[in-house]
Amino acid sequence: MPPTTRAEATSSTPSNGVSILFVCLGNICRSPMAEAHFRHLTSFSTTFPHPLISKIDSCGTGAYHLSAPPDPRTLSVLAAHNIHSYTHLARKIRVPQDFKEFDYVLAMDEENVADLEAMVERAVKKGGLRREEVEGKVRLYGSFGGKGREEVGDPYYGGGEGFEVAWEQMGRFARGLVWDIEGRGKGERGEEQEGGG
């Protein structure tokens, strides 16, 4: 069975592919689900690892749940979709390192986008980051879903149904992201998908 833990996947991925960082608020619900889903998709839909992907990770904009495992409802949804071996400990985004290291910094909602952009601005002002290092990296994950700028709502305070809705969204967004990455690999400029489809 292909590896789905962060340590296993990182040790066996090429160093010249694109890197993807999924970001939500606390890094225990949406972004770890996105990370696990995307690892699963790219390992089972193609030979593992995907030849154009070097690293997949997730983090939060806040430090509310540092070193905590994913929310049990996230793990329950993953297990229901045959993802059983994903392990993860919540972390906060590292500024400026993560903005330099990752090619895609994908936020779950517009508030996450605004928080990330504010972090970029502060890092640029302090001289720890050059604007061109971040150009086009911070994006709304839902922009890859074919329905415009779609947000993944935070299911933390609700019931299990919010986690299932998030899973369905991850499926659409992940396919669009793979399409974008493969377009990059062919030398095409990846663009956010808009409109129906």
UniProtKB/TrEMBL annotation:
Homology family: Belongs to the low molecular weight phosphotyrosine protein phosphatase family.
Annotated Pfam families: LMWPc
Keyword field: Hydrolase, Protein phosphatase
GO molecular function: protein tyrosine phosphatase activity
Keyword Zinc-finger: no
PANTHER family in the record: LOW MOLECULAR WEIGHT PHOSPHOTYROSINE PROTEIN PHOSPHATASE, LOW MOLECULAR WEIGHT PROTEIN TYROSINE PHOSPHATASE
Active site location: C24 (nucleophile), R30, D154 (proton donor)
InterPro entries: LMW_PTPase, Ptyr_pPase, Ptyr_pPase_sf, Tyr_phospatase_low_mol_wt
This protein's encoding gene: stp1
Protein name: Low molecular weight phosphotyrosine protein phosphatase
Domain Phosphotyrosine protein phosphatase I: 18-180
Top-level lineage group: Eukaryota
